[in-house]
């Protein structure tokens, strides 16, 4: 009977620990399908070179007093005071710099969710991020998104800065 308990613990503990995290080891790159469209996240090397201009929107995954309606794709809770974003193909998590091209304001934020799934939009931000970038009332803004880093902890890889007029 004692061996059965040990076997049960040996099987259940790894399963429980795996369910606690977001199901990724350093960064998430699993392909996924939404509304019949299959998305293949970019490689870490591709993500470290990523820069794009397009339309940003904002979305609200939080609710009153921090009681959440859902978690992000990597299992993180979203609260009203968070500054974070959703992107369709960057590995998760990533850190990006988002610049509002209409007013020049920029902000670094964590990308920890998937989206936006509306044609023509490249990134979704939390309401606080949209407020800091100055487009919360408008709902949409033309932005530039540039990767700062990909991954967490020992897996974190940063974009290498070019110095000396971009030659090195």
From TrEMBL:
Residues 52-145 form the RlpA-like protein double-psi beta-barrel domain. Coiled coil: none annotated. GO terms for biological process: cell wall organization; peptidoglycan metabolic process. GO terms for molecular function: lytic endotransglycosylase activity. The keyword NADP does not apply. Keywords: Cell membrane, Cell wall biogenesis/degradation, Lipoprotein, Lyase, Membrane, Palmitate. Its main location: membrane. One of its GO terms (cellular component) is plasma membrane. Its EC number is 4.2.2.-. The keyword DNA repair does not apply. Belongs to the RlpA family. Lytic transglycosylase with a strong preference for naked glycan strands that lack stem peptides. HAMAP family: RlpA. This is Probable endolytic peptidoglycan transglycosylase RlpA. It comes from Persicirhabdus sediminis. The gene is rlpA.
């Amino acid at each position: 009977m004692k061996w059965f308990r040990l076997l049960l613990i040996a099987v259940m503990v790894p399963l429980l620990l795996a369910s606690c995290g977001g199901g990724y080891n350093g960064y998430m790159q699993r392909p996924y399908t939404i509304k019949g469209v299959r998305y293949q996240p970019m490689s870490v090397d591709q993500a470290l070179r990523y820069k794009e201009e397009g339309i940003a929107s904002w979305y609200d995954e939080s609710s009153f007093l921090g009681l959440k309606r859902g978690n992000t794709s990597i299992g993180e809770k979203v609260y009203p005071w968070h500054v974070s974003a959703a992107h369709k193909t960057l590995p998760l998590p990533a850190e990006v710099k988002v610049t509002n091209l209409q007013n020049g304001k920029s902000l670094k934020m964590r990308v920890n969710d998937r989206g936006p799934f509306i044609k023509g939009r490249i990134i979704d931000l939390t309401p606080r991020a949209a407020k800091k970038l100055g487009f919360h009332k408008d709902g949409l803004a033309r932005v530039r998104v540039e990767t700062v880093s990909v991954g967490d902890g020992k897996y974190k890889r940063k974009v290498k800065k070019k110095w000396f007029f971009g030659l090195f």
